[in-house]
Design goal:
- The chain is of the alpha/beta class.
- The chain has two domains: 16-48 and 325-441, Aspartate Aminotransferase, domain 1; 52-322, Type I PLP-dependent aspartate aminotransferase-like (Major domain) (Aspartate Aminotransferase, domain 2, 3-Layer(aba) Sandwich), CATH 3.40.640.
- It is 38% helix and 18% strand.
- It has helices spanning 37-40, 49-59, 73-85, 99-116, 137-142, 146-149, 167-170, 177-195, 222-233, 285-292, 308-322, 326-345, 381-392, 421-441, and strands at residues 16-20, 23-26, 31-34, 90-96, 124-128, 159-162, 200-205, 236-240, 264-267, 279-284, 351-357, 360-368, 373-374, 394-395, 397-400, 409-413.
- A seven-stranded mixed beta sheet has the order 4-10-9-8-7-5-6, sandwiched between helices.
- α2 packs antiparallel against α11, α3 (73-85) runs parallel beside α11 (308-322) and α13 crosses α14 (421-441).
- Bound molecules: pyridoxal-5'-phosphate.
- The site of pyridoxal-5'-phosphate has 15 residues, from α4.
Amino acid sequence: MAGHVFGRSAAQMPTAVAGAGCYIIDADGKRYLDGSGGAAVSCLGHDHPAVRAALHAQIDKIAFAHTGFFTSEPAEVLCDALIAAAPKGIEKVYLLSGGSESVEAALKLARQFFLETGEPRRHRVIARRQSYHGNTLGALAAGGNAWRREKYAPLLVETYHIDPCYAYRHQAVGESDAAYGRRAADALRTEIERLGPETVMAFIAEPVVGATAGAVPPAPGYFERIREICDEYGVLLILDEVMCGMGRTGTLFACEQDGISPDIVTIAKGLGAGYAPIGAMLASGRIYDAIAQGSGSFQHGHTYHGHPLAAAAAGAVVETLRAPGTMAQVRAKGATLQSRLEAALGQHSHVGDIRGRGLFRGIELVEDRDTKRPLDPARKVSARIKAAAMARGLICYPGSGTIDGKHGDHILLAPPFIIEDKQIDALVHMLAEAIDDAMAATQ
Ligand code: PLP
């Protein structure tokens, strides 16, 4: 191939030509076990019959009708299904084409809410270091990785960052999980007070942190306290479930396990499961009503939002995820994956932590288990593990800069929910070998 794709191309990577269950097959016929669903996208594998049938049926009816003129049956069905399963108080869905778009829409909706309710000074966003919210300018500003923001700093909206909830590194010796959860959440109160509550619009966080941290779950009680603090100061709580949502952690919405409802929640990745580019922003009735009874409309829009084909694919995905037993299976398979990882890697001299929820698991790599000293970034260990795993026929998602944007390596696992027991074994086996290959190559 000529290699005109912007970025990496056929010269550097294999060409994907087919998908079969949990496998991607390249042009040479090599099979790759998709241990991370790409980047936690392919939750139903690569040839799911219900999603394929929904796409075929929809393309035979109509592919596109602009939402400025029409609604469509698949968009209506999808939004009804999402609301039927959404956290309490969430009543409306705004369809988009991906995760970053959903975060942008969430930030703009929060701003418009405060304009409509007579608090125009509220425009500041608080987010957490060590989080990823997307690559468009608003979402990038909210993201925690300083190195991603650096080049574009003059273009970004005003955002402030607090420490994440990251027990492996921040919980004090002897501190209970609950006490740590409260302490971590109180960083939000301190920051709101510092900025002036009347200027703060929203706090945005991933319930289980994905790409930048490797499936870090919150401490018990953390999000309950965050919810209380947001309510106390009138700050909107935006949960970014683009990666951890849609059943990835074993409940359709990850925040169900933390017992709270956000004001706005964003989803993408698993919503389309890789069959269509789609995302969504879901908002509370309170926000919707304020705008409906105020100016009358949310000042936003994209040509492809509510695209019928994408909505048809996502409708079939959501129906599959909501079918009885699917979430229980994710939880059970997640527990199996965790225990197999612990058995294979729990004593490994460079594995510091194995964590996560459901089929969303992270392995943090360290130089020294006792001191938790991170690996030297120059060794590029997580990138080497990705390459070694690909060579063995395994896809896993590497991450670096886990701790402070510079130090810290982890591997993220997010296999399709259809993964079988023997495939979990194969995944863990190939990953353990890839870790050893990468460490040996940089000793
Ligand atoms: N939010 C989170 C939590 C993500 O993990 C991502 C992507 O990795 C995004 C937002 C951005 O999504 P997209 O790449 O679809 O724009």
